[in-house]
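Course assignment 3, question 2. Fill in each field.
Student: A.L.
Task: Predict the tertiary structure for the chain below.
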Amino acid sequence: MRIGLYPGTFDPLTHGHRDIITRATHLVDRLVIGVAINRDKGPLFSLEERVAMIEAEVVDLNIRNGVEIIAHPFENLLIDCARDVGASLIIRGLRAVTDFEYEFQMVGMNRAMDDSIETVFLMAEARHQAIASKLVKEIARLGGDVSKFVSPPILKALNDKLG
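Answer field:
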């Protein structure tokens, strides 16, 4: 069984994330969505809320693609999380060249710690490449319309959270 790990904070899950998740299901038998606790980023949504949003958003993919998708909170090193869940593949989404520079460094470090775990980069579809959770939150906080970037349930959660 090929297990992939797609890590992130997912605060909140966007259409760009969902695009990567959908495409990753064609590469693996089980996809673990690693939900980073990362207190330094000061997430808008609690860990429990982010996990619940992910689980609700992937129900249809579980059924349609026949791939088990689970949300797995983690606070340790990414490479240790990959080992913990039995992943042989780390899946990373890229939006721009600046993402690649950072990710390239991370791959090197991860390979130095465990060269049996591969990293695969997936580019989000062009229409989703500019979407970043940080920007979605900022736009929503300032009263802008983010319905093009998130699903209706996540839009409702954002509106409920921000008032």
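Instructor remarks: The chain has a mean pLDDT of 91. Residues 26 and 65 are 8 Å apart (CA to CA).
Grade: pending
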